[in-house]
Amino acid sequence: MKAIFHADKKWGIGKGNGLMFSLPKDMKFFRETTAGKTVVMGLNTLRSFPGGKPLKNRVNIVLSPEDVAEDVVTVHNLEELFEKIRKYPADDVFVIGGASVYRELLPYCTEALVTKVDADGGADVFVPNLDEDDNFELAFESEPEEDNGYAIKFCTYRNFAPRAL
User: What per-residue confidence (pLDDT) applies to 5?
Assistant: First the structure.
């Protein structure tokens, strides 16, 4: 399982249950990376999508105490989640938010694909700073590039001690 997100300088990932930045290159990377794959999210992340609808061309798994909708797979706890995702190739499962889901599942992820934004987005939700996590190491960092007025870098962090699912 992998995580994918963009983060500002303070490891903020969102504001007001939405994204902080409009980043077309990052969105393209997200679409291309997760298309045809399985995405895992919390209920607030699902609700943040246009019309609260699941992402197309993906298996959408929502971790929620309540049943969500017919067009998503709802799991109510980590045990149910792990049982479901074991049915898919591990490299085809992506954690996509929100902050509490990242905090819960990052220790189980083998990689985190992070688009770092060189700005402060005024976030109200954050993920753990992987640069300060002893289990994660920066394995790849692209050259900076411009995306809608922001400098971004595509980074891959590897988890050297992922927890077993």
Answer: 98
